[in-house]
Amino acid sequence: RVVANDRKDFLVADILDLQPSTFDLGPLSREPLPGLHMRTRAFIKVQDGCDNHCTFCITAIARGPGRSRPLPEVLADIHAALDGGTKEIVLTGVHLGSWGQDLSTGLKAGFGLHFRDLVAAILKETDTPRLRLSSLEPWDLDADFFALWQDARLCRHLHLPLQSGSANVLRRMARKTMPEAYAALVESAREAIPDVAITTDVIAGFPGETEAEFAETLDFVRCMGFARGHVFTYSPRPGTAAARMNGQIRHAVRKERNAVLRAAFAESERAYQQKFLGKIMSVLWESTDQLSDAGWHVEGLTDNYLRVSAVASEPRWNQIDSVKLVALAGEPGDSHLSAILVPSVTLLRCKAVV
């Protein structure tokens, strides 16, 4: 049986020949997050589907058009997570930045909301200690968006997929941005959000990528100063336009370019870490394991996505503490920031891992 994308939310009802409203009936118990899984971060899906048609991506075919969850539903899930003790809310979606474009404000038919409206409403209507945004397409944002970071609860981390630093490759990918526009957006973010972590995705070996175009990407990555980057070796997806393109790159070349880009990202990651030596950072501890009678091993994240590990005199799971980062050790791509604790914190020693 084939089920269309627009019916997948009703799959169980259709198969069992029941009305969808059946599943809205009580008694139902909503278990607050983090619940039994001991999660400190709650991932709240606010949107599904995608209206972009990047030539390498199968998502628009597999997930269908973009669909936003209504604001009251999102707020209800967030309040449930906070009731369960969650300290950080993470907003997720297939095309997160498009949230609201398919929702009416009630003022005029077809007049949609903007993603900034969702973020502003969450900051206003909830007391979440932290709010983090997952991946955002750069063309969904403008410089005014970054004014939201006047609220310190919004984590200083933006994941903005680049995919290529070559204008020609971006056109073949059908991406809706160019290197110059991307760089300008990042500059605006850094001006508005001190110490913001900018992370990204890049594809190595896209069909037709010449040595010159790859060099453009490498140069762009090096000059942007990313806090971290994920490099994906291009792999053709059946049914996508890119899979039918001429100039498919040999797998060995794709892997070589991947390695070069990963090395460049490792260097920029290390440079980003070095900026925080001597600074005091807040960490939300996400895991706690007892090492011995001497202390507990705890790991967590700063708001700008520096991973921190420590030895504590007591279990600090799901607590936010302050640490001072004092030294950087390790090789690029596997660097650690060692730290000491401010006097008010009951930790013995710690190190940070990005």
How would you explain this protein's 3D organization?
The chain folds into three domains: 1-24 and 38-134, Transcription Regulator spoIIAA, CATH 3.30.750.210; 157-275, Transcription Regulator spoIIAA (2-Layer Sandwich); 280-353. The strands form three sheets. A six-stranded antiparallel beta barrel has the order 8-9-10-13-12-11. The chain has helices at residues 11-16, 59-63, 71-83, 115-125, 167-173, 179-192, 211-224, 251-274; strands spanning 41-48, 67-68, 88-93, 130-133, 157-159, 197-204, 228-233, 280-292, 295-302, 307-312, 320-329, 336-341, 347-353. The protein contains eight helices and 13 strands. Helix 7 runs parallel beside helix 8. The longest helix is centred in the C-terminal third of the chain and has 24 residues, at 251-274.
Q: What's the CATH topology label of the largest domain?
A: Transcription Regulator spoIIAA
- CATH architectural type of the largest domain: 2-Layer Sandwich
Q: Which structural class fits the helix and strand makeup?
A: alpha/beta
How far apart lie the N and C ends?
46 Å
**What Rg do the Cα atoms give?**
22 Å
- Can you give the helix content as a percent range? 25-40%
Taken as a percent bin, the fraction of beta residues is: 15-25%
Instruction: Count helical runs.
Output: 8
Contiguous low-pLDDT stretches (5 residues minimum) are 22-28, 344-350
User: In which order are the strands of the major sheet placed?
Assistant: 8-9-10-13-12-11
Q: Which sequence of SSEs, written as H and E, runs from N to C?
A: HEHEHEHEEHHEHEHEEEEEE
Largest sheet entry: 6 strands, antiparallel, barrel
Text of the CATH class of the largest domain? Alpha Beta
Number of domain units: 3
Provide the residue-averaged pLDDT: 86
What's the β-strand tally? 13
Overall, the morphology is globular
